[in-house]
Amino acid sequence: MSHPDRSEFDIIFAGGGTTACVVAGRLAEWDPSLSILILEGGQHTLNQAAHVQPYRFPSHLAPTSTTMTFNVGNPSPSLNGRAPIVQCARCVGGGSSVNAMVYTRAPASDFDDWGVDGWESENLIPLMKKVETYEVQPDRPTHGYSGPIKVSSARCKLGGGQEFIRVGTTYHKRQYAEDTDDLETCNTYSPWAKYVDGTTGRRSDAAHHYVYNQAHNANLQLWVGKRVKRVIFQDKRAVGVEFTSDPVSCPDADQSSNIVRASKLVVVSAGAFGSPAILERSGIGAEAILKRCDVQQLVDLPGVGKNYHGLRDHNVVFVPYFTADEAITMDPLWRGKESVLQENVAQWKINGNSLVAQKLVQNLQYWYHIDWHFSGSDAKIKWRPDDDELKAMGSAFQPRWKEFFQDRPDKAVAILAISEGYAGVLLSRLAPRNYLVAFYYTLYPASTGSVHIKLDENGQEGINFNAGYLDDPSDIVPLNFGYKKMREIFRRMPSYRGEVPIGHPCFPEGSAAVCGETTGPVDLNAPDIIYTAEDDEAIDRYHRDRVQTTWHSLGTCAMKPRADQGVVDARLNVYGVTNLKVADMSIAPKNVGTNTYSTALLIGEKAAMIIADELGIECKPHNESSGEGPRSRL
């Protein structure tokens, strides 16, 4: 799929992530004569164990990883002076090749709230169904059953998820449903489906199911290790891109610039960090920012990079617990116990069924001393507080509740979930035993921030990234409450054996909230822990020290009116120029209450239809290759 001697294509994609793979793959399928080039800064993922075996995904977040970019934000007083780090994918398939594979979908009303003509939920639901083969349950009206992306309940279930659901439906007094990703159900405990092929046990990603399965098409080109510097214009018409070898994935390659031409269209698809940077380097953005970077302005578009903020990400915290010795968790595998690893990989190769097909829960310590903890879970709740919980959350959250949530019963405040196993920075300080992890992340935080290019004192390009996490006082309230509620749920689970003290808030000596190991759960009807004002301060400090991204960055090239700091119109055209579109999560004008893989796929399907319509290409039914190449076992 790589013949870099060509100098012109019909369409060029600047970036080869999830959405780019969907758009390019669909267009190539519908019109094989269309010459398409995908330029991706990272490397191939085809049939590589690190990308197709679900349990391996945390390897991409190691400090030495070249499959992820570590975007370091500016220190923030709201985070007790911390500099937040947000990682994004740097490989073919983007986030779909490295993410946690949890299947969630936003409520349909999120897309109606975007207020963009043609992007209403009634127009998008058919595309949501087109994307997937939903293997969890048959005959669900909002799910698809013949799409390229497989969704399953996975074939290896652990016990903690069932305990979490049982306690949630009794102590927490919420209902149970098999499917809470039907675009409307909320505040209900459910199993958590996965983007894993239920037959093969492989990750179900955009690269393998939209692009690699068309290796027979010489007109679909994929050049890896290529960093797009800027878009080339003639009279404000995009006619190509300038690119170099990526210095991270190809450190020894020639760094000289090259230009490749596009006769029909350039599509910027480099994600919430990469896409605004390409536009700004191309002269599209706010005058002051471009001037500081010695970039001549082509189009005054101050909305570029302006909409990255808490409202355009989700904030998560992971909290470890001890569990029973007899509990089945992922811990032996993550500790690298060779016999367990060999046994499970061998079983996975035979029938896709073992702990290898589970999503890994992992902690890694990056040199900035940030605790990265990644989740794989069999159970969740998209949580909304009831009246008693709202009262307990206090006055700081009330304005946000009344403004945004109160009259929108399908919108969850946060996802509360369980992961079964622990590994990482604390592992060397802990006994080799079994652990559980509670995690919770807010879905519609209100804080604001931005991301732009900048030059350092040596003239080297970097980013000026203000995450804005917890700047709005309402954002920390659901996290503080989430810690307390999840602790009460875990205390009542049969396999609970106490809190891992070094992974919890540091409560004052003598407090009823002090953490530690215990011999078993409390009674289901036991009273809740009473927290003092000092305890609440400890929880607040803990979250400011620990809260992090959920890797759901979006909104930096928003699809809004230009006068409202928009960057692209409803057909994804960049304002002020022609033959240039943006298609990725950066175009989302408002947040979505979901893990964003599902939305990135959806944007790809919609963008493909828009481009096909403009080029006069018929949108044919999907017919994934039946060849065994990209789907074969390792």
Please provide a written account of the structure:
- This protein is of the alpha/beta class and 634 residues long.
- It has helices spanning 18-30, 49-52, 108-114, 121-131, 160-170, 206-211, 271-281, 287-292, 331-334, 338-351, 387-393, 398-405, 476-491, 533-546, 597-615, and strands at 8-14, 36-40, 68-72, 85-89, 132-134, 149-151, 175-176, 188-191, 220-224, 226-234, 237-245, 258-268, 284-285, 299-300, 315-323, 362-365, 371-374, 379-383, 414-419, 435-442, 450-455, 461-466, 496-499, 548-549, 580-582.
- It is globular, with a radius of gyration of 24 Å.
Share in β-strands: 15-25%
User: Helical segment tally?
Assistant: 15
Q: How many angstroms separate the termini?
A: 21 Å
> What overall geometry do the principal axes of the alpha carbons give?
globular
Estimated structural class: alpha/beta
Question: What is the gyration radius calculated from CA atoms?
Answer: 24 Å
Largest sheet: 8 strands, mixed
Number-wise, the strands total: 25
Mean pLDDT, all residues = 89
The low-confidence parts are 354-376, 625-634
Helix content: 10-25%
